[in-house]
Structure formats: structure tokens, C-alpha cells
Specification:
It contains 14 helices and 32 strands. By secondary structure, it is an alpha+beta fold. The radius of gyration is 33 Å and the shape is globular.
């Protein structure tokens, strides 16, 4: 123990010495008679003002910190030699921010404009600059909002008769409430909404400059009479001359689809192009050689024709539908005036849709090596994808997988080493249509559902048993907004067969709970998932993620067997002493009956371009009933590993306070799962990123005869495992490689006999023992 304490004391002394050295070197590149900008702070006496938003208008900010106190990138810059103007350290570091009085004045002016745009026209902005020792400066901005300017009255003046006939009076009458703050950003947002509404009603040429506000402050400086004016169209090209006329509503005459990038262009008179052309009503398909796509595919994806008049919203919806097909690398939609009118005298447009197809077929080959504390393995994947299989946008995927792994568990004379082999095939067919007797045009407003089919077969061979899994599913997927995705499987079928198992393996698994995971069974379920994800993988930004899952299995089969008075059978593939009881069978095997639901929430909080917090919470439960005493192994929860409680290897934690014996196979699962994670991420050198994290949670059983495994409301909180650690990641732009070191802090299965059988907390001097840490390798962020 003394040796460990001396080691940690030495490390602490080194860290303190380094940081003292760093703080002394911050002004290394600060010129004489200049000051390093150490700190800026904004104080506002108005709670409705967003100080985080105000920082965007700050002209000068201090060097960024990581870990909340270390100006790491400035430190790197200061390590560079002074005799070189450029160099690697200067490139990856950050030059010192030198206090600039002129920029402070400009910041003060920007803050005043910001306050006035929020309606605080009598705001007062002051700054205080404190020049400290060691050539460092601090700048404090004090903002006094004073009384805001309020809207005394609001009215709308529509000078355009065509607009007046379309725009509902009630929609603009209360557009801006009286007594609300005179906020120019709010006014701009309201104006944008009116413009979009009118552009969705056929006003193709309506310009944002033709809708504007006039404010009259003659009554009092604290109130304004506000008027929104919708003007006519100005036909004059001379800014000093006005030639006004009412706006016109445009309709669509024809649609022209250029389905090959070699044939993109515009017809001078919107008539036939000198390429091969196919016509369906007013839809013209221009292509070269053989037409790649069925006309119905593109017509069904085109929502611009859903209404008579031009609509910018339907243009966006069409973009979205075409993008979701995953068939085109470039999509462009534009409109050309025809100088002709329809039967009602409305001017018409021709819609030009240019499509650049992506490659129809692709092959992928990947190999992966794994090494995680006693688990050594290699896996390979051969994939084939065909886009547009039957010329209707069908996407066909085939994946062949193969893997082998060497895994050891136990200690000393009880050490067991097993070799496993796995191979399988997975086929998927995605159809860009909704295969159901329903009209989806109006039912699904944002996008048309895709029909998804999946068929797979997996073969697993281990020294102790052989198992095959046959799976098939049929379902639908669609988006209800830019961020919301729905997935509904009306059929999800799994057939699990066990054979060639060893009795020695069964004897090592000492209770029925584990044995039931290795019996023949089938699952016939339907499931639904909802995902809300605002994360933009192209850039570092704040995000929210919410996923809800619901699944139920066996109800229809159970009801039919009950209705038909079918016989129940007693069977078990393991051994005669593990018979559970009579069950209804489906295709010769007992079928599972259960209900499962879980929820996951993630949130990313961006501090600045170098620092970010990520939070995650998960809660789930699966309940067997009817034909099942236990839930099938593949539908249970597990934790640990690279994406769970990282201080534990995968499937080694829980259930509850249960502790694995040295001879027990580490394959823990449960019916209830609670998990929470927090991670602080910070940029380091170039594409390297560091992280500190805390994970907590566990799994529990609903029915189990092993001690400490069952969920009990008055005790479960004592069985929450806690781990912490650090990690390093490398961003390849297309993939992130991750290595995390997890350290156990609180292990609900741990008993310290030296402290009178105190449970849970790992002694400080034992944290770095092999059993108390785990190294996890992963691809992508854990959450």
C-alpha cells in the first residue's frame, strides 16, 4: 500500500510542477508593453437576455481552455522556438490573444446594437479594463437594459389585391401581440413566416423586400405604433423608378426530368430536347440510351404536383424525397417561366429536375482485429449493394460475415480457454414505396415510408455448443420531420436452434436462469421505435437525441393456440432435469411471449470549439408472461464494454450485486437496465481528442434464484455500479477510433473483508489492479 501512495504522491507533485511552469510561460509571446487577454465577462441586469448569444458579438475573446483551467493550445504555441516564425507547434497551437482597446470599443458598440435590436433602446453598455501583473488583462462588460420599448399597436396594410385575396385576415391581425417587446429579430421571423405562406400559395416572384415594417414613435419613446406593409411587385429595373403591379400566382405546366448527368440542360422553349424522351401526362423524362428509372418512381417522389399552384414547401419536400432514395449524388430543381398562361389566366412555370445518378453497384471488404483483456479475435465482412435493382429505386444489400475469437475466463487451475467461430449471411431489400392497402400521399406529410425486408442466417460454433439463428422481418421506416424517424416492424421472426452442446458446459451453468438462454425457441414479434436526433455529424455542435422502443411478442400466437385449444408440450434441449413446464409451440419450438420497452436520451452541450459535454441516460424493462417464464437471451439487456459502463468488460457486470465465480462463463444479462453516462471531451493536438468520463448503472432480473440478482425497490440504488476513466480518440473525418480506460469506483459485487465486509467502494490502493480496470476499444463516440 505504501508503494502505491508514494507513486500517486510523485505523480501529483509532477502535475502541480507542470501547471506552475505553464502559468509562468503564458506571456512568452506577448510583446513588450502589451497584455495577454486573460478574461472577459458579461454582466446584464435583464434575465431575458441570452449572454451566450451575446458572446457571438464579442470582437475579442481570451485563449480557449480545456479542463476548465488549462490554456492547452496557448501552451503548445509557447513551446515553439522564438527563432522560427512558423512550425508545427505554432500550427497546432493558438497564438496569444493580445488585449486591443479598439476591439473593446467595437465590442461595446456591438453589444449596444444587440440590446437595441432586442427592444432595449435606452440600454447603457460600459466596460472596465483591469491590467494585472505579469502583463495580463481582464475586461468586464456591464450592461444596464433599462425599460424596453413596447409595441403600442399593430396593423397590417396590404397594397396588393392578389395577396389580400389569399392571406387570411385573422392570420395577420394578431401576428404581433400588443404590449410585446419591439424586437427586430422577432419581426424578421414573423415577416419570414408570411413570405413562406404566400410562396406556398403560388406567389413565385414574391421578394422579401416587398414585406416590411414601419414604426411610429410619436406617442412616446417607450412605445411604438407598428405597421406591416405588403407591397406590390415593382417591375422597374431602375431603382429610382417605380412600376408597380399586383403579384401573380403561378401554376406548373410541365415537369422535365433529366435522369442522366450527361443530358443536363434547359430547353429554350420548354419543348422536346434532342435526346430520348418518354412522356407520362405532363411529365417528360429525358435520358440517353436506356432509361435508368421507372417513371412512377420519380413521379411519386415529386410532390410539387400535389397542388395546383407553385409551393416552395413542396419543392423542399421533393428534394427530401429524392434524397431519401439514396440513388443520386446531385439533385437540382429549378423553374423556368413559360410566358404562357393556364386556362384560368395564371402564368405558368416549367419545372426542371436534374438528377445525377450515383453508382448502382458497390462492393465492400473489411477486416477487424480485436483484443480486449483476454479476448482475441478477427472478423471479416464482405458486402455487396445494388441500388435500383428493378429500376424502381430498390436497394438490395448482401453481407457475408465471418469471425473467430479466443476467450479465456477463470484463474489459475480453473482457467478456461474457448475458441468460437461464427459465420452468416444477411440480406436486405429496401423498397421506396409503402406496401400496404393505404393511400400515403396525405397520411405521411413529410416523406413516403420505405418498406424494409430482412432475411438472415447465423451459425455459431463453440467447443461447448452449436447454435443457428434464422431471422426474417418486414417493416416500414419514414420521417415525420427533418429530425424525427419512425420504424415499425409488423413482423420480426427469429428461430433459434441449439445442438451439439457438451454436458460439461451445462454443468458449469448452475441454474435454470442461465440454462434457459440456451434452449430452442422462436420469437414472433412486432416492434416500433421513434428516434429524434438533431445531431449534425458534419460539424461540432449541440444536439439532442431521444429514442423510444416498444416491442411485444407471442400475443397473437398465444391467442390462436388458446382459441384452437392446441396442446402444450414439455421439451427442453439441454437435459431432462431442466424441464420448465408445458408450452405452446410454433414450428416445433416454444415461442416467447413478453413486452419490452426502453428509452434513451442524449444531449451534447458545446462550450466552445475546443470543449464539449455529452450526457446520456437509459432505462429499459422486459417482462415475460403467458407462454414464457424467462425472456430469450437475445432480448435481454446487458451492460459493460465500450458503449456501456466502461470499467467492466462487456457482459461481466450484474445482475444486481451478483458476483461471477471464476469458473462461470461471463455472459450476464437481465430484465431491467438503468444506465447514466457523462463525458467531457476536449480537443488536443490536430485530430486527437481527449475525454474524461463517469459511467453508472446496472442490470437486474425479475425472476432469478441466484443471490442478489433480482430488482428490489428498496435496495436497487445500492447496486448501482460506478466507473470513471479517461480516453483518447482520433478523428479520421470519416470514422473516429477510440480507446477508453475505465476504472471501477463502486462495484456492487465487491466485498472488502479488511474493512469488516464493507461492500461496493474499491479501496484507493486497489484501483489499478487488473480486476478493477478495463481497456475498451471502439469506433465512433460511445454516445
Amino acid at each position: 500500500m505504501g508503494r502505491n501512495y508514494k507513486y500517486f504522491s510523485f505523480i501529483s507533485a509532477v502535475i502541480i510542477s507542470v501547471f506552475l511552469f505553464v502559468s509562468c510561460q503564458q506571456t512568452r509571446y506577448v510583446p513588450a508593453n502589451s497584455f495577454l487577454l486573460k478574461r472577459t465577462k458579461i454582466s446584464v441586469d435583464e434575465k431575458t437576455i441570452n449572454k451566450k448569444e451575446m458572446k457571438l458579438y464579442m470582437k475579442q475573446k481570451p485563449n480557449a481552455k480545456i479542463l476548465g483551467f488549462w490554456k492547452f493550445h496557448l501552451w503548445l504555441y509557447n513551446l515553439s522556438p522564438k527563432d522560427k516564425e512558423t512550425g508545427w507547434l505554432k500550427r497546432i497551437g493558438e497564438a496569444p490573444v493580445i488585449y486591443n482597446a479598439d476591439l473593446t470599443v467595437k465590442t461595446r458598440e456591438e453589444f449596444l446594437k444587440y440590446m437595441q435590436n432586442r427592444g432595449f433602446y435606452r440600454a447603457n453598455v460600459r466596460d472596465t479594463v483591469i491590467l494585472k501583473k505579469k502583463r495580463k488583462a481582464e475586461v468586464y462588460y456591464m450592461i444596464q437594459a433599462n425599460q424596453p420599448t413596447l409595441i403600442h399597436s399593430f396593423q397590417t396594410t396590404i397594397l396588393d389585391d392578389s395577396v389580400r385575396a389569399v392571406l387570411p385576415k385573422d392570420s395577420v391581425k394578431n401576428l404581433i401581440p400588443e404590449a410585446s417587446r419591439f424586437d427586430t429579430d422577432v419581426l424578421a421571423g414573423k415577416s419570414k413566416n408570411v413570405i413562406r405562406y404566400l410562396q406556398n400559395q403560388g406567389f413565385y416572384k414574391l421578394d422579401k423586400s416587398e414585406i416590411y415594417f414601419e414604426a411610429d414613435t410619436f406617442t412616446t419613446k417607450q412605445k411604438v405604433d407598428l405597421k406591416m406593409i405588403i407591397d406590390k411587385e415593382n417591375l422597374s429595373t431602375d431603382p429610382n423608378v417605380e412600376k408597380m403591379k399586383d403579384h401573380e400566382r403561378y401554376t406548373i405546366r410541365n415537369f422535365y426530368y433529366y435522369t442522366d448527368q450527361q443530358t443536363r440542360g434547359i430547353m429554350k422553349d420548354s419543348t422536346m430536347a434532342p435526346m430520348d424522351t418518354f412522356k407520362v401526362d405532363n411529365h417528360f423524362f429525358i435520358y440517353k440510351g436506356t432509361m435508368r428509372f421507372k417513371p412512377s418512381l420519380l413521379i411519386n417522389s415529386n410532390h410539387i404536383a400535389d397542388q395546383k399552384y407553385y409551393s416552395v414547401g413542396l419543392v423542399e419536400k421533393t428534394y427530401n424525397e429524392l434524397f431519401l432514395l439514396r440513388l443520386f449524388k446531385a439533385i437540382n430543381i429549378r423553374f423556368v417561366e413559360t410566358n404562357k398562361t393556364d386556362s384560368l389566366g395564371n402564368p405558368t412555370l416549367d419545372c426542371i429536375i436534374n438528377l445525377s445518378p450515383s453508382k448502382r453497384q458497390a462492393y465492400t471488404v473489411s477486416f477487424e482485429g480485436t483484443n480486449s483483456l483476454g479476448k482475441f479475435g478477427v472478423a471479416g465482412n464482405l458486402g455487396y449493394q445494388h441500388k435500383n435493382l428493378f429500376k424502381g429505386g430498390e436497394i438490395f444489400d448482401v453481407n457475408l460475415i465471418g469471425a473467430t475469437e479466443k476467450q479465456s475466463y477463470g484463474h489459475g487451475d480453473s482457467l478456461n480457454v474457448i475458441h468460437s467461430f461464427e459465420t452468416g449471411i444477411d440480406t436486405k431489400l429496401t423498397l421506396p414505396i409503402f406496401l400496404a392497402p393505404l393511400k400515403t400521399r396525405k397520411l405521411f406529410q413529410y416523406s413516403t415510408p420505405q418498406t424494409l425486408t430482412d432475411l438472415s442466417y447465423n451459425y455459431q460454433k463453440r467447443p461447448d455448443y452449436t447454435r443457428t439463428i434464422l431471422s426474417a422481418s418486414l417493416g416500414y421506416q419514414w420521417k415525420s420531420s427533418e429530425y424525427a424517424t419512425h420504424r415499425f416492424n409488423i413482423l420480426d421472426l427469429n428461430m433459434v436452434r441449439m445442438f451439439s452442446y457438451k454436458k460439461e458446459f451445462i454443468s458449469r451453468i448452475e441454474n435454470l436462469y442461465i440454462k434457459s438462454s440456451y434452449t430452442d425457441h422462436s420469437i414472433s414479434s412486432w416492434n416500433y421505435s421513434y428516434t429524434l436526433n438533431t445531431q449534425n455529424i458534419q460539424k461540432r455542435s449541440e444536439y439532442k437525441f431521444l429514442k423510444l422502443n416498444f416491442e411485444t411478442a407471442g400475443n397473437l400466437l398465444y391467442g390462436l393456440n388458446k382459441l384452437l385449444n392446441r396442446a402444450k408440450y414439455i421439451s427442453d434441449t439441454l437435459s431432462s432435469d431442466t424441464l420448465v413446464g408445458p408450452k405452446y409451440h410454433f414450428l416445433g419450438t416454444p415461442f416467447a411471449q413478453y413486452f419490452k420497452t426502453d428509452v434513451e436520451y442524449r444531449k451534447g452541450i458545446l462550450i466552445n470549439r475546443y470543449n464539449m459535454f455529452a450526457l446520456r441516460g437509459f432505462a429499459g424493462i422486459v417482462i415475460p408472461y403467458g407462454n414464457s417464464d424467462q425472456v430469450p437471451f437475445e432480448r435481454k439487456y446487458f451492460t459493460g464494454g465500450a458503449n456501456g459502463i466502461r470499467a467492466w468488460s462487456v457482459r461481466t457486470l450484474g445482475p444486481g450485486s451478483y458476483r461471477l465465480s471464476p469458473n462461470e462463463f461471463p455472459n450476464q444479462s437481465g430484465d431491467i437496465k438503468l444506465e447514466a453516462n457523462a463525458e467531457y471531451r476536449f480537443a488536443m493536438i490536430e485530430n486527437f481528442e481527449g475525454a474524461f468520463f463517469v459511467d453508472m448503472g446496472n442490470i437486474w432480473s425479475l425472476r432469478d434464484n441466484r443471490p442478489g440478482t433480482e430488482f428490489k425497490l428498496n435496495n436497487f440504488y445500492k447496486e448501482i455500479a460506478v466507473g470513471t476513466g479517461m480516453g483518447i480518440r482520433y478523428d479520421f473525418s470519416y470514422v473516429i477510433l477510440r480507446v477508453d480506460l475505465g476504472i471501477k469506483l463502486y462495484d456492487p459485487s465487491f466485498v472488502d473483508s479488511s474493512l469488516t465486509n464493507v461492500r461496493g467502494w474499491i479501496p484507493f490502493n486497489s484501483l489499478l489492479k487488473k480486476d478493477n480496470y478495463n481497456i475498451a476499444f471502439g469506433i465512433g463516440y460511445p454516445f
